[in-house]
Q: What sequence folds into this?
């Protein structure tokens, strides 16, 4: 019988916490869980990844990446017989080392009227790709405070700084001004595309 797993995913070593609450069918695969997390966190799937479940590695194999004993597209979630509150790890980008702790909150009946995977909760934008990892992200967040960004903008308005000289930094303000937002509707739109096999799921939408 197909059931639905409710997972809570959060990024380790970051405060305030960045987290997502996800629903996946028990017949979804490890590969489905990987892509669901990528969509929900706003990652671009540029880097290698792996799941660590009960001491064994799982994932979607890539050229020059880690070799997994089983193809993640063939490993269904129900095969693990997860216990309630059981935790496991998802690592993304072995350079920046984004570690996601995943916990099974509960198992619920399948609703045939709903589409899965789905995101039913979350907080904050995930860090941008290649920003250096948790500690670097926290330092950047402290640097790009609202007073700092306001000061730079006023200097540009007053002519003390040219827009061309600080264009890259001004562009980064867009992320830091919205770092505490989470667009669940946009995530679920991409998840519906993913489940339908529509390649638009690889695009960011608002």
A:
């Amino acid at each position: 019988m197909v059931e639905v797993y409710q997972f809570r995913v959060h990024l380790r070593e970051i405060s305030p916490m960045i987290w997502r609450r996800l629903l996946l069918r028990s017949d979804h695969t490890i590969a489905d869980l990987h892509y669901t997390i990528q969509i929900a966190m706003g990652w671009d799937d540029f880097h290698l990844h792996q799941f660590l479940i009960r001491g064994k590695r799982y994932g979607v194999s890539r050229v020059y990446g880690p070799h997994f004993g089983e193809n993640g597209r063939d490993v269904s979630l129900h095969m693990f017989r997860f216990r309630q509150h059981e935790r496991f790890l998802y690592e993304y980008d072995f350079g920046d080392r984004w570690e996601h702790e995943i916990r099974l909150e509960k198992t619920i009946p399948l609703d045939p009227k709903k589409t899965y995977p789905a995101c039913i909760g979350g907080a904050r934008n995930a860090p941008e790709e290649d920003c250096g990892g948790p500690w670097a992200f926290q330092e950047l967040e402290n640097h790009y405070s609202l007073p700092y960004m306001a000061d730079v903008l006023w200097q540009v308005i007053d002519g003390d700084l040219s827009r061309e000289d600080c264009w890259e930094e001004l562009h980064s303000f867009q992320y830091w001004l919205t770092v505490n937002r989470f667009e669940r509707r946009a995530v679920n739109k991409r998840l519906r595309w993913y489940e339908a096999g529509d390649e638009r799921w690889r695009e960011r939408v608002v």
